[in-house]
What does this fold into?
Amino acid sequence: MKNPIISGFVGIALVGIAAVMLRSHYATWQRRKNNTNLSDLDRRYFYSQYRRRMQTSGLMALLGVLIPLGDSPLIWNRGPQISTIYWLGVLAITLWLMLLAVGDFASTRVHSKAALSAIRRERRELEAKVAEMRSRRSNGKPSDS
It folds into this structure.
């Protein structure tokens, strides 16, 4: 038990940040869920993103509770084995949270690249149509030049 005040502050900060993130993710999903302009593929992607981010924020809140608890006499007075197992569990949760964050980053990157590719393809098609329309005369026949 080094400094319960610092671990308590860290715990409160983590729970507070997680609460704000949970609310933000929920509000974002509600807007996207009801967006009629989204394709089914985009809606599924955003739902998966919502689930990942809710899990990440929930784990952050859990860590906000576990860190101060692990610094309390409740854990340390039970012996070094219990303390070690407890902190290994906290580290495992932290690792899982980090893996979820990396997975979310990778998933967002892949989805963004695919969306950008589709936009570029559509732009090329539209530019080709514009060029074709410009090459026609007003009567609809292609120009001689």
The mean pLDDT is 88.
